[in-house]
Amino acid sequence: MTVVREPVYALDGRAIAGANRVIARTRFTRKPGSSMPHELAVLSARTKVGTVGAFEHFFSERLHQFLADARSAGMRTDDAGDARAYFIQLAFKIYNGRGFGDPVPEALRGSELWGGGAIAAASRSQAWLARFEFVERIKFVMGKNPHFAALSSAGKQRVYDYYALAAQLLTDSYLEAQRTGDRRERELARHTARDQLRLDLGVDPNLVHFTATGIEVE
C-alpha cells in the first residue's frame, strides 16, 4: 500500500470532519495480551533452531519493551496508524538515514532573533509539522482501506503489535551492530529495513522522498 499523495484535509468543513472520522478508524481499545508473539513464534520455530515457547517468550518481552518505551515517549499504544508511521520512519533512518530533517542540537544554540538558533528552531518546527502531516496521511490511507476498516478492535491491535515488533526488532539489531561495530551486521540491519519497507509500501524505498508535507514517490 503506497502512502503518498492522499488528500487528508480540504477547505470544506464537512470534508475535514469526514477525514477526521476516517483517521479515527485506526484507533482501537487495547486488551491485555497479544496474539502476535505466538504467531511469530510458530513461524520462527519452523525456520530456526528453538521452541515455540522460547520464541514466544522472546517476542512477548520485546513487545512489552516497545509498549513501555512508547508510553514513556508519549506515543499512543491504541492507534495502529501511529505504530505503522513509527515503523516506516525508523526503517528509513536505519536503511539510508533519511527523515524529516530535525536539526542537530548544536544548531539550536544562539539567542539572537535571526541567528542560527532561531533558524534551526524554525526548521525543527517545520520538521515536526511534516512529520505530523505524514502520520495523519498514514492513518487516512489505512482508514480508507475497507479491509482494515472492517477489522475488529482486536484485529487492529494485532496490526499495531505487528508494526511494534517489527520496529523493536529492527532497533535491537541495529543498536547491537552499532555497539559491536560489526559492519556485516549493520548491513544486514539496513537490508532488512529496506526489504520491510518495500513490502509495506509496495515500492522501492529508493524512490521515496521526504517532503515538507510527508513523503512522495517518484
Describe this structure as you would to a colleague:
The chain has one domain (13-217). 65% of the residues lie in helices and 4% in strands. The chain is built from 8 helices and 2 strands. The chain has helices at 13-23, 36-47, 52-72, 80-96, 116-144, 146-149, 153-180, 183-201, and strands at residues 208-211, 214-217. A hairpin with a 2-residue loop joins strand 1 (208-211) and strand 2 (214-217). The protein is globular.
The fraction of residues assigned to DSSP E strands is: under 5%
| Secondary structure: number of strands | 2
Low-confidence stretches: 1-11, 103-115
Helix content: 55-70%
Strand pairing plus helix content: what structural class? mainly alpha
Compressed to H and E, one letter per element, the order equals HHHHHHHHEE
Overall tally of domains: 1
Number of H/I helices: 8
Q: How would you describe the oligomerization state of the chains in this entry?
A: single chain
Biggest sheet statistics: 2 strands, antiparallel
Q: Termini distance?
A: 15 Å
